[in-house]
Amino acid sequence: QVQLEESGGGLVQAGDSLRLSCAVSGRTSSSISMGWFRQAPGKEREFVATISRQGNVRNYADSVKGRFTISRDNAKNTMYLEMTTLKPEDTAVYYCVAGDRNSGALISDVGYWGQGTQVTVSS
Question: What percent of the chain has pLDDT over 90?
Answer without folding.
Answer: 88
